[in-house]
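A reminder from the course coordinator: this example appears on the midterm review sheet, so study it carefully.

Given structure:
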Protein backbone atom coordinates (compact mmCIF):
# COMPACT_ATOMS: atom_id res chain seq x y z
CA UNK A 1 0.00 0.00 0.00
CA UNK A 2 1.30 3.45 -0.88
CA UNK A 3 1.56 6.16 1.75
CA UNK A 4 1.27 9.90 1.36
CA UNK A 5 3.76 11.99 3.33
CA UNK A 6 2.41 15.48 3.98
CA UNK A 7 5.50 17.37 5.08
CA UNK A 8 5.25 21.19 5.11
CA UNK A 9 8.61 22.66 4.17
CA UNK A 10 10.35 23.88 7.37
CA UNK A 11 11.05 27.61 7.68
CA UNK A 12 14.73 26.92 8.26
CA UNK A 13 16.65 23.94 6.88
CA UNK A 14 18.05 22.78 10.20
CA UNK A 15 14.54 22.69 11.74
CA UNK A 16 13.77 19.49 9.83
CA UNK A 17 17.14 17.79 10.11
CA UNK A 18 16.22 15.37 12.91
CA UNK A 19 12.78 14.70 11.49
CA UNK A 20 14.28 13.98 8.06
CA UNK A 21 16.41 11.27 9.62
CA UNK A 22 13.45 9.69 11.40
CA UNK A 23 11.38 9.70 8.21
CA UNK A 24 14.16 8.15 6.15
CA UNK A 25 14.43 5.39 8.72
CA UNK A 26 10.73 4.51 8.98
CA UNK A 27 9.74 5.03 5.34
CA UNK A 28 12.62 3.10 3.78
CA UNK A 29 11.39 0.58 1.23
CA UNK A 30 7.88 2.02 1.11
CA UNK A 31 6.13 3.58 -1.85
CA UNK A 32 5.66 7.19 -0.71
CA UNK A 33 4.09 10.22 -2.36
CA UNK A 34 5.32 13.49 -0.86
CA UNK A 35 3.38 16.73 -0.45
CA UNK A 36 5.40 19.71 0.75
CA UNK A 37 3.28 22.79 0.01
CA UNK A 38 -0.34 23.87 0.13
CA UNK A 39 -0.70 23.85 -3.66
CA UNK A 40 -0.03 20.09 -3.71
CA UNK A 41 -2.93 19.23 -1.41
CA UNK A 42 -5.05 17.82 -4.23
CA UNK A 43 -6.12 14.35 -5.28
CA UNK A 44 -5.65 12.91 -1.78
CA UNK A 45 -9.13 11.51 -1.16
CA UNK A 46 -9.03 8.01 0.32
CA UNK A 47 -5.27 8.10 0.97
CA UNK A 48 -3.39 6.79 3.99
CA UNK A 49 -1.11 9.62 5.10
CA UNK A 50 1.51 10.67 7.60
CA UNK A 51 1.46 14.36 8.47
CA UNK A 52 5.01 15.31 9.50
CA UNK A 53 5.57 18.76 10.97
CA UNK A 54 8.95 20.27 11.81
CA UNK A 55 8.72 23.26 14.15
CA UNK A 56 11.62 25.62 14.65
CA UNK A 57 12.67 27.06 17.99
CA UNK A 58 9.69 29.45 17.90
CA UNK A 59 7.23 26.60 17.30
CA UNK A 60 6.18 27.87 13.89
CA UNK A 61 6.08 26.69 10.29
CA UNK A 62 4.78 29.10 7.65
CA UNK A 63 4.02 26.45 5.01
CA UNK A 64 2.05 24.51 7.60
CA UNK A 65 -0.12 27.59 8.18
CA UNK A 66 -0.72 27.83 4.43
CA UNK A 67 -1.80 24.19 4.43
CA UNK A 68 -4.19 24.82 7.33
CA UNK A 69 -5.71 27.70 5.39
CA UNK A 70 -6.35 25.59 2.31
CA UNK A 71 -7.75 22.64 4.26
CA UNK A 72 -10.17 24.96 6.04
CA UNK A 73 -11.26 26.64 2.82
CA UNK A 74 -11.73 23.31 1.01
CA UNK A 75 -13.00 20.94 3.71
CA UNK A 76 -13.36 17.93 1.41
CA UNK A 77 -9.70 17.65 0.44
CA UNK A 78 -9.06 14.67 2.73
CA UNK A 79 -12.37 12.85 2.29
CA UNK A 80 -12.03 9.21 3.23
CA UNK A 81 -8.41 9.52 4.37
CA UNK A 82 -6.83 7.91 7.43
CA UNK A 83 -3.75 9.41 9.01
CA UNK A 84 -1.30 9.97 11.81
CA UNK A 85 1.06 12.76 12.84
CA UNK A 86 4.71 13.24 13.73
CA UNK A 87 5.55 16.64 15.21
CA UNK A 88 9.17 17.49 15.88
CA UNK A 89 10.23 20.57 17.85
CA UNK A 90 13.41 22.36 18.77
CA UNK A 91 12.23 23.01 22.33
CA UNK A 92 9.98 21.53 24.99
CA UNK A 93 6.89 23.52 24.02
CA UNK A 94 4.40 23.73 21.12
CA UNK A 95 4.59 20.17 19.75
CA UNK A 96 1.38 18.92 21.34
CA UNK A 97 -0.61 22.12 20.85
CA UNK A 98 0.42 22.23 17.19
CA UNK A 99 -0.58 18.58 16.83
CA UNK A 100 -4.04 19.18 18.32
CA UNK A 101 -4.62 22.10 15.97
CA UNK A 102 -3.50 20.05 12.98
CA UNK A 103 -5.57 17.03 14.02
CA UNK A 104 -8.74 19.11 14.33
CA UNK A 105 -8.24 20.65 10.89
CA UNK A 106 -7.40 17.32 9.25
CA UNK A 107 -10.51 15.79 10.83
CA UNK A 108 -12.74 18.64 9.67
CA UNK A 109 -11.35 18.15 6.17
CA UNK A 110 -12.70 14.59 6.11
CA UNK A 111 -9.87 12.51 7.56
CA UNK A 112 -9.98 9.89 10.29
CA UNK A 113 -7.10 9.51 12.72
CA UNK A 114 -5.98 6.19 14.14
CA UNK A 115 -5.90 5.79 17.91
CA UNK A 116 -2.82 7.43 19.46
CA UNK A 117 -2.01 9.11 16.13
CA UNK A 118 0.70 11.41 17.47
CA UNK A 119 4.42 10.81 17.77
CA UNK A 120 6.06 13.94 19.12
CA UNK A 121 9.73 14.69 19.43
CA UNK A 122 10.42 17.49 21.88
CA UNK A 123 13.79 19.21 21.73
CA UNK A 124 15.35 16.99 24.39
CA UNK A 125 13.32 13.86 23.51
CA UNK A 126 12.74 13.55 27.26
CA UNK A 127 9.17 12.49 26.46
CA UNK A 128 10.65 9.15 25.32
CA UNK A 129 12.47 8.42 28.60
CA UNK A 130 10.11 5.64 29.70
CA UNK A 131 10.01 4.00 26.26
CA UNK A 132 13.79 4.13 25.98
CA UNK A 133 14.14 2.45 29.38
CA UNK A 134 11.69 -0.29 28.37
CA UNK A 135 13.70 -0.89 25.19
CA UNK A 136 17.06 -0.76 26.95
CA UNK A 137 17.94 1.78 24.28
CA UNK A 138 18.46 5.48 23.80
CA UNK A 139 15.94 8.27 23.27
CA UNK A 140 16.40 8.44 19.50
CA UNK A 141 15.89 4.69 19.15
CA UNK A 142 12.61 5.01 21.05
CA UNK A 143 11.57 7.92 18.83
CA UNK A 144 12.23 5.93 15.67
CA UNK A 145 10.44 2.89 16.98
CA UNK A 146 7.35 4.91 17.89
CA UNK A 147 7.34 6.51 14.44
CA UNK A 148 7.69 3.13 12.77
CA UNK A 149 4.80 1.67 14.77
CA UNK A 150 2.64 4.66 13.83
CA UNK A 151 3.39 4.26 10.12
CA UNK A 152 2.45 0.59 10.29
CA UNK A 153 -0.78 1.37 12.09
CA UNK A 154 -1.74 4.07 9.57
CA UNK A 155 -1.10 1.66 6.71
CA UNK A 156 -3.04 -1.29 8.12
CA UNK A 157 -5.77 -0.12 10.53
CA UNK A 158 -9.43 -0.46 9.59
CA UNK A 159 -12.16 0.37 12.07
CA UNK A 160 -14.13 -2.81 12.89
CA UNK A 161 -17.78 -2.80 11.81
CA UNK A 162 -20.56 -4.41 13.83
CA UNK A 163 -24.02 -5.68 12.89
CA UNK A 164 -25.57 -3.93 15.89
CA UNK A 165 -23.14 -1.45 17.42
CA UNK A 166 -23.22 -0.37 21.06
CA UNK A 167 -23.24 3.41 21.58
CA UNK A 168 -22.39 4.93 24.98
CA UNK A 169 -23.46 8.53 25.62
CA UNK A 170 -21.91 10.44 28.54
CA UNK A 171 -23.06 13.81 29.79
CA UNK A 172 -23.17 15.96 32.90
CA UNK A 173 -26.01 18.29 31.93
CA UNK A 174 -29.61 18.95 32.87
CA UNK A 175 -32.13 17.49 30.41
CA UNK A 176 -34.43 20.46 31.00
CA UNK A 177 -32.09 23.32 30.10
CA UNK A 178 -29.13 21.89 28.20
CA UNK A 179 -28.74 22.79 24.53
CA UNK A 180 -26.19 19.98 24.23
CA UNK A 181 -28.65 17.35 25.49
CA UNK A 182 -31.36 18.82 23.25
CA UNK A 183 -29.16 18.33 20.19
CA UNK A 184 -28.32 14.79 21.26
CA UNK A 185 -32.06 14.03 21.57
CA UNK A 186 -32.49 15.12 17.96
CA UNK A 187 -29.54 12.96 16.87
CA UNK A 188 -30.93 9.99 18.82
CA UNK A 189 -34.22 10.23 16.94
CA UNK A 190 -32.35 10.21 13.65
CA UNK A 191 -30.28 7.16 14.55
CA UNK A 192 -33.32 4.90 14.69
CA UNK A 193 -33.04 1.34 15.99
CA UNK A 194 -29.98 0.01 14.19
CA UNK A 195 -27.78 0.48 17.28
CA UNK A 196 -28.08 0.02 21.02
CA UNK A 197 -27.75 3.24 23.01
CA UNK A 198 -26.92 3.66 26.69
CA UNK A 199 -26.84 7.06 28.36
CA UNK A 200 -25.03 7.71 31.65
CA UNK A 201 -25.24 11.01 33.51
CA UNK A 202 -22.21 12.15 35.49
CA UNK A 203 -23.76 14.95 37.53
CA UNK A 204 -23.80 16.14 41.11
CA UNK A 205 -20.52 14.75 42.32
CA UNK A 206 -21.13 11.17 41.11
CA UNK A 207 -17.59 11.05 39.68
CA UNK A 208 -14.59 11.89 41.85
CA UNK A 209 -11.58 13.10 39.91
CA UNK A 210 -8.42 11.05 39.65
CA UNK A 211 -6.22 11.51 42.73
CA UNK A 212 -3.00 10.41 41.09
CA UNK A 213 -2.41 7.01 42.67
CA UNK A 214 1.07 5.52 42.24
CA UNK A 215 1.48 3.80 38.87
CA UNK A 216 1.67 0.30 40.36
CA UNK A 217 -1.51 0.82 42.39
CA UNK A 218 -3.39 2.18 39.36
CA UNK A 219 -2.11 -0.74 37.29
CA UNK A 220 -3.19 -3.26 39.92
CA UNK A 221 -6.77 -1.99 40.13
CA UNK A 222 -6.94 -1.51 36.36
CA UNK A 223 -6.06 -5.16 35.83
CA UNK A 224 -9.09 -6.02 37.98
CA UNK A 225 -11.24 -3.76 35.80
CA UNK A 226 -11.60 -1.22 38.58
CA UNK A 227 -10.17 1.76 40.40
CA UNK A 228 -9.11 2.36 44.01
CA UNK A 229 -11.83 5.00 44.36
CA UNK A 230 -14.63 2.78 42.98
CA UNK A 231 -18.03 4.44 42.65
CA UNK A 232 -20.04 4.98 39.46
CA UNK A 233 -16.90 4.87 37.32
CA UNK A 234 -16.07 1.32 38.41
CA UNK A 235 -19.63 0.05 38.71
CA UNK A 236 -21.23 1.57 35.60
CA UNK A 237 -18.88 3.54 33.37
CA UNK A 238 -15.99 1.07 33.02
CA UNK A 239 -18.24 -1.85 32.01
CA UNK A 240 -20.15 0.42 29.62
CA UNK A 241 -16.94 1.65 27.97
CA UNK A 242 -15.66 -1.91 27.62
CA UNK A 243 -18.89 -2.94 25.90
CA UNK A 244 -19.24 0.13 23.68
CA UNK A 245 -18.17 0.38 20.05
CA UNK A 246 -18.36 4.18 20.23
CA UNK A 247 -18.57 6.86 22.90
CA UNK A 248 -20.47 10.11 22.38
CA UNK A 249 -19.46 12.95 24.71
CA UNK A 250 -21.96 15.74 25.24
CA UNK A 251 -19.75 18.77 25.84
CA UNK A 252 -21.15 22.16 26.79
CA UNK A 253 -18.36 24.72 26.63
CA UNK A 254 -17.63 25.85 30.18
CA UNK A 255 -15.00 28.60 30.23
CA UNK A 256 -13.43 27.24 27.00
CA UNK A 257 -12.87 23.85 28.62
CA UNK A 258 -14.53 20.51 29.10
CA UNK A 259 -16.86 20.34 32.09
CA UNK A 260 -15.36 19.15 35.37
CA UNK A 261 -17.28 15.86 35.37
CA UNK A 262 -16.25 14.93 31.82
CA UNK A 263 -12.67 15.84 32.66
CA UNK A 264 -12.89 13.60 35.73
CA UNK A 265 -14.24 10.78 33.54
CA UNK A 266 -11.27 11.08 31.18
CA UNK A 267 -8.80 11.22 34.06
CA UNK A 268 -10.35 8.20 35.79
CA UNK A 269 -10.36 6.28 32.50
CA UNK A 270 -6.61 5.86 33.01
CA UNK A 271 -7.10 2.85 35.31
CA UNK A 272 -9.02 1.00 32.59
CA UNK A 273 -6.53 2.17 29.97
CA UNK A 274 -3.77 0.43 31.93
CA UNK A 275 -5.21 -2.94 30.95
CA UNK A 276 -6.55 -2.29 27.45
CA UNK A 277 -6.30 0.10 24.54
CA UNK A 278 -9.31 1.60 22.76
CA UNK A 279 -8.16 1.57 19.13
CA UNK A 280 -11.33 -0.27 18.11
CA UNK A 281 -13.67 2.24 19.78
CA UNK A 282 -14.69 5.52 18.15
CA UNK A 283 -15.25 8.84 19.89
CA UNK A 284 -17.83 11.42 18.82
CA UNK A 285 -18.79 14.70 20.46
CA UNK A 286 -21.58 17.26 20.49
CA UNK A 287 -20.16 20.62 21.55
CA UNK A 288 -22.23 23.73 22.28
CA UNK A 289 -20.71 27.09 23.19
CA UNK A 290 -22.66 30.02 24.55
CA UNK A 291 -20.55 32.51 22.63
CA UNK A 292 -17.49 30.99 20.93
CA UNK A 293 -14.67 28.49 21.38
CA UNK A 294 -16.20 25.21 20.24
CA UNK A 295 -13.01 24.35 18.37
CA UNK A 296 -11.04 24.77 21.61
CA UNK A 297 -13.16 22.11 23.32
CA UNK A 298 -12.97 19.85 20.25
CA UNK A 299 -9.18 19.97 20.38
CA UNK A 300 -9.30 19.02 24.07
CA UNK A 301 -11.42 15.97 23.24
CA UNK A 302 -8.98 15.00 20.49
CA UNK A 303 -5.97 15.43 22.77
CA UNK A 304 -7.50 13.47 25.64
CA UNK A 305 -9.52 10.73 23.97
CA UNK A 306 -7.74 10.19 20.65
CA UNK A 307 -4.12 11.14 21.24
CA UNK A 308 -3.89 10.02 24.85
CA UNK A 309 -6.51 7.32 25.43
CA UNK A 310 -6.23 5.79 21.92
CA UNK A 311 -9.86 6.10 20.74
CA UNK A 312 -10.33 6.10 16.96
CA UNK A 313 -11.23 9.57 15.65
CA UNK A 314 -13.78 9.29 12.82
CA UNK A 315 -13.95 11.95 10.10
CA UNK A 316 -15.79 15.08 11.33
CA UNK A 317 -16.20 13.52 14.76
CA UNK A 318 -17.90 16.56 16.33
CA UNK A 319 -21.09 18.53 15.87
CA UNK A 320 -20.11 22.04 16.97
CA UNK A 321 -22.74 24.73 17.51
CA UNK A 322 -23.15 28.10 19.24
CA UNK A 323 -26.27 28.69 21.35
CA UNK A 324 -26.98 30.37 24.65
CA UNK A 325 -30.58 30.37 25.87
CA UNK A 326 -32.32 27.02 26.52
CA UNK A 327 -33.86 25.66 23.32
CA UNK A 328 -31.85 27.96 21.09
CA UNK A 329 -29.65 25.21 19.58
CA UNK A 330 -32.48 23.23 18.01
CA UNK A 331 -33.78 26.41 16.33
CA UNK A 332 -30.51 27.47 14.71
CA UNK A 333 -30.63 28.12 10.94
CA UNK A 334 -29.75 24.95 9.04
CA UNK A 335 -29.52 22.82 12.17
CA UNK A 336 -31.77 20.06 10.80
CA UNK A 337 -29.39 19.45 7.91
CA UNK A 338 -26.36 19.40 10.22
CA UNK A 339 -28.10 16.99 12.60
CA UNK A 340 -28.96 14.75 9.65
CA UNK A 341 -25.34 14.77 8.49
CA UNK A 342 -23.97 14.03 11.98
CA UNK A 343 -26.35 11.10 12.56
CA UNK A 344 -25.58 9.75 9.09
CA UNK A 345 -21.86 10.01 9.82
CA UNK A 346 -22.20 7.98 13.02
CA UNK A 347 -24.10 5.30 11.12
CA UNK A 348 -21.55 5.23 8.29
CA UNK A 349 -18.61 4.92 10.69
CA UNK A 350 -20.15 2.10 12.74
CA UNK A 351 -21.93 0.17 9.97
CA UNK A 352 -19.94 1.10 6.88
CA UNK A 353 -21.34 2.11 3.52
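Designed residues:
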Amino acid sequence: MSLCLIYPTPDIGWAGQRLNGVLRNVLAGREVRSVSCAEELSGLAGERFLFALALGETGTNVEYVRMLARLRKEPGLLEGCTGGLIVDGAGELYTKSAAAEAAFTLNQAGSALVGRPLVEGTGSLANFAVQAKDLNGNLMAAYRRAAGELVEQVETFSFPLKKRPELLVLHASSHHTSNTVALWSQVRERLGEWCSVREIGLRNGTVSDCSGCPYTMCLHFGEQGGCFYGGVMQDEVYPAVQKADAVVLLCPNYNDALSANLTAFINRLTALFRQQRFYDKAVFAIIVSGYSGGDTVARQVISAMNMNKSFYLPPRFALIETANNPGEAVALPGIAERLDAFAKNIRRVLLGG
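Confidence is low (pLDDT under 50) at residues 208-225. The radius of gyration is 20 Å.
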